[in-house]
Design a protein that fits this description.
Largest sheet: 5 strands, mixed
Strand order of the largest sheet: 3-2-1-5-8
Oligomer: single chain
Shape: elongated
Order of helices and strands: HHHEEEEEEEEEEHHEEH
Structural class: alpha+beta
Amino acid sequence: MRQIIIVALLVLATTVLVYFGLNALDLMPVEASAQANMIDWLFNLEIIVISFLFSLIIVPLVYSLVKFRRKPGEEGEGEHMEGNTRLEITWTLIPLLMVLALAYVGAWALGDTLRVDPQAMKVQVTAFQWGWKFTYPDYGISTNELYLPVDQQVHLEMKSQDVIHSFWVPEFRVKQDIVPGQTTDYRVTPSEIGDYKVRCAELCGTSHAYMIAPVVVVSQSDFVTWIDDQIALIPDDPGPNADRGELIVNQNGCFACHSVDGSIIVGPSWAGLFESDVELSDGSVVVADEAFIVESILDPNAKIV
């Protein structure tokens, strides 16, 4: 019994040290959403359990190696131990109950994370190789920056134009895959004003690492001001216009693949492109007139540079 008490005290002390040691690493980013509170609480509970299970394995192992090692001069066999049915049932039932308890708590946390606010603001998210487009249907604007008002739930309706992407703002904690051919729902309530970034967390191609867009959480009044500024950028004349062209390029993430300074990112540069001779992959040469540019936008594989 004395050995059991010593081991139990060592397990308890090691659990506390491991738990506080892991917390001291400060690996988690700031909590910036209402959903993050519940998710971090669940993470903290799991870290406590992990610290205890780690100690429960390592402490008896190390203690046994030191306390019950073969002493100098001992040559005989160790005491033969038969199985203990009661002990085996105990160490099967306890982990089972722990897993069931964590499953219940996890389901409760998931339900809290997915709770629907009927007053949520809707934003349509389009993911593509390799960028993001955010459309605010209530205001008729689109942008490549995600502006959100603080303390208001936002309902993101997310679609992919090509392959599987994954919407992830680490400070919001919630991460959601975006699958081609279907609409994925994502709900978040920003709680901290600040600048963040949305990243694609699913390997989606050569420029996956650069599929990043700003996420700006502002006050309600600043959000209204930003909306008014975006509406003011919408031109009255829908015809050809350099400012409108730049706005469309920014909204659709064209600069993820193309440059305007002659450098090659993925696709050909736009520097000096218009009305120039373009050599295609089959050896032919075409003029980059308006028809060629329109065709290249609508059907990129029609003529490969």
